[in-house]
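Can anyone check this?
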Amino acid sequence: MKRYLFRFAPEEGKRLASIRAQAVISDAAGSFLFTDVMLQEGKHLTGYSQNTKEMLQKLRENGSPSPPKHYNAVVRGAKTLIVPNRGAYWAVEPGAVIVPTALDFHIRAKENLSKGIALGQDRLTRLFYFPQVLASNQELAVIGTERRVSQDGSPVQFKGRFLYAAWGNPRFPVTLLGLDAGQATLRPEPSARVLIALQEWQLAEGGKRI
């Protein structure tokens, strides 16, 4: 358990009306506790906000936790996939705050991918690159929820970052790499089956408080 202290001074002659503290977590797996916020002026405690409520919970659809969603596609060459992270509009509780969630990819090559696979996020703000050969019928697993990558079950090296789905209908360019730059395009282009899984989440009572 760690305790973080921050000191700030308002402008001279100005009154402090409010303070906003935000916890931001990225590229992490595991449990995180954000228990309380205390404000102190000099030696005296002037404000205290206790947070003992759950911060995140599975997205509620019709009042029940939503199950993991699965999407699949057959990609040839390079395609952009849309992966919804919004729940069913008619079933989500009014006022629910849906948050970004990690994605799990399972990619099985139908033809040899001699240069590997590249995955992007929206306008390529994030990139994942597997630069090794993926032979026909081999599977590459890019598991964002556990921060691991494997080829037919064995851990492998990769470049870039894991991908996540923001709220809404984010897009993910998928490129199957079978050529060096400048080579003529293969006909037909290499293809692969792509399975994407995600668990949708929303802010719980404690998350809304902070």
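Reply from J.R.: I decoded it. DSSP finds one helix and 20 strands in the chain.
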